[in-house]
Amino acid sequence: MKQTILVAEDDENIVDVCRRYLEKEGYEVLIARDGHEAINRWKNDKPDLVILDIMMPLKNGLDIAEEIRFDDDIPVMLLTALGQEKDRLFGLSIGVDDYITKPFSPREMVLRVKNVLRRYEKSGKHRDTAFSFGQYRIDYNMRSLTKNGVPIEMTVKEFDLLWFLVQHESQVFSRSQLLEKLWGYEFEGDTNTINVHIRKLREKLEQDPAHPTLIKTVWGIGYKFEGKATP
């Protein structure tokens, strides 16, 4: 199965070079030409590695890298210009795996991609795609939640919300953060949307929805998951 590389860059010449050289090495290449598209492609297409230009329309590469690193452990590389040492140092401080300085050698870019992916594979890092907690099992690839093996019906957003909370067990998220993470920057609804989805999840998961033990309210802040989930 081909590994997928997301290249987020608004310069068509650089996009063309990256695509040609990476495809020649057998990678599938996805392209995003602004920050919002980059976030959507990362969330929806699940690439194996992301290459981000720092200076992009709508949202810069450093902000995107920070968001990816908050939610995911996939390799992230930065495309930087000469003289952007401050940006490179910030990128490395938030966990960016490598950077490529423009103008760059396409062959060096390919070698850096291979090296980062190789380090990632040797480290044993991977995305957990299923978790168990109590009588429940949630499986991302199957998009399913079961209780003692029996499927529980869920809407798309109910599943996404539960999966996000399970992945970030014990972390507290405000309603606004959950809206941004799961509905995206373009969503114009209010935070009551989260309350409704939390209530529905509790009705499906909790023995006593009025006194939840899995999805807990942190008063004045938001919600957190406390289910002792294991991969």
TrEMBL record:
Any one cellular-component term (Gene Ontology): cytosol
Any one Gene Ontology BP term: regulation of DNA-templated transcription
Keyword Magnesium: no
Chief localisation class: cytoplasm
Start and end residues of each Response regulatory domain: 4-117
Gene Ontology MF: a single term: phosphorelay response regulator activity
The entry's keywords: DNA-binding, Phosphoprotein, Transcription, Transcription regulation, Two-component regulatory system
Subcellular location: Cytoplasm
Ligase is among the record's keywords: no
Domain of life: Bacteria
Positions bearing 4-aspartylphosphate: 53
One Pfam family it belongs to: Response_reg
DNA-binding region as annotated in the record: 128-227
Location of the OmpR/PhoB-type domain: 128-227
Protein name: PhoP family transcriptional regulator
Species of the source: Pontibacillus yanchengensis Y32
